[in-house]
């Protein structure tokens, strides 16, 4: 395979991606969610409201009202609710159908690229299997990043609630103040809890829903303290101030642990990525040397065994370098 053909394949792939992106942007500008909301608002203003209609939910239904057969089948999967909750915790507006569409697109795209480059079917299937979980990794990364931001914002939010209550505000109005003054993502979560209370939900249900959307131990302690104070009484402002102090000290300790373990984490990254990087370099320099791993039976067994042990090593290294505080 000469260099010109490889360059042509790469340019063709880039052109295809750009064409798909352009088509998506055009479709989104004509039929996107924002356009639909504007059309729905104009339609609602132009037509009288139905007095007999039931109350609208404050939360998005995650695509449960989609009448398509595929959407109903996906929602009937055993872990569909957990997946929908994961997408919600990541701050994404994806439905389950959209998530699996991305999974299939990554797998099919990787398979097509491998076949266009005249790779063996085994390599094409392995590449498709490796690329299929990319949307899952993206969701997990966004969720971890969002949880980290929420954890950093929580002490300030607890102090703001405590100061608002010392100034004479009620706890629900203090939640609304946090929602208005704090930036995203924590401000939006407190604002949503405040709106749920205003729409008729109980204080306990609104706070427990917030814990479901933001599964942080520190926020759980915050909610438990509020609920216990409502039942037993006490100085809630002082309790929240103490909670914010404890959270700040824990985050400070976590920062020190991350600094001290930085060398170990860097070594783990190097050990995990070095075999794949070395294999890619050898594949570029001398493809015939690597071709034996998918053309010969013994080579395929060696490659499969090595991949299994490398995956186990990656998980083991990840468990070692992850220190919980």
Automatic annotation (TrEMBL):
Annotated TM spans: 6-27, 99-116, 122-139, 266-286, 298-316
Every Type II secretion system protein GspF domain range: 158-283
Highest taxon in the source lineage: Bacteria
UniProt-annotated location(s): Cell membrane
Pfam families per UniProt: T2SSF
Membrane topology: Multi-pass membrane protein
GO cellular component, as recorded: plasma membrane
InterPro entries from the UniProt entry: T2SS_GspF_dom (IPR018076), T2SS_GspF_sf (IPR042094)
Keywords from the UniProt entry: Cell membrane, Membrane, Transmembrane, Transmembrane helix
Main location: membrane
Keyword Membrane attributed: yes
The protein, known as: Type II secretion system protein GspF domain-containing protein
Organism: Paraburkholderia humisilvae
